[in-house]
């Protein structure tokens, strides 16, 4: 395993904390495999990954991780119902073409689904739009409008409404502040939507 798995991105740490040891995990859009490597080393999961970038796949495979090239928009339909204990999608939903369909597949493939996403309803984003009249750039949304991979930006409230429409239960929701620490308030409420830079959700199909 590569060094550094003990120091993973903050949302990945909260995702990892939601996953039980020894379970089956599918990480969609797994990037360089940081989460899969961490879970394999510290929680002994049976982990699999899908990554659209061939460079990411190669990096994962060179670290001994079981990762294939695939696209969340087109390839999740091929997975059977309940194939994994957890289906994970971190900081990727906003880059998919069919986010609703992707969420439907996540809760179908996994007994539980875990997602993290940036919050376009954060107060700094609102203030930037109000004062500058331009699309914002923040730590969680660092791209210019013309080169961003993010095509379906949403707020925490938008996402909560989507899962409600899909009749999906939110078992746990965490809004993270700019420091990366969870906010001591309801993540899905008005204040969480205003102060949360990003959010992590644990979902289950009803």
Describe the structure.
It is a single chain. The protein has eight helices and seven strands. The protein is of the alpha/beta class. Helix content is 33%, strand content 23%. The N terminus is likely disordered. A seven-stranded mixed sheet has the order 3-2-1-4-5-7-6, sandwiched between helices. The protein has one domain: Vaccinia Virus protein VP39 (Rossmann fold), CATH 3.40.50.150.
Strand order of the largest sheet: 3-2-1-4-5-7-6
Mind telling me which CATH architecture this is? 3-Layer(aba) Sandwich
Q: Termini separation (Å)?
A: 37 Å
* Rg of Cα set: 16 Å
**Percent of residues in helices:** 25-40%
The helix-and-strand class reads alpha/beta
Low-confidence stretches: 1-5
- Give the full name of the CATH homologous superfamily: Vaccinia Virus protein VP39
User: How many H/I helical runs?
Assistant: 8
What is the level 1 CATH name?
A: Alpha Beta
Number of domains: 1
CATH fold-level label: Rossmann fold
User: How large a portion of the residues is in β-strands, by DSSP E?
Assistant: 15-25%
- The count of DSSP E runs of length 2 or more, i.e. the number of strands, is 7
SSE run? HEHEHEHEHEHHEHE
Shape: globular
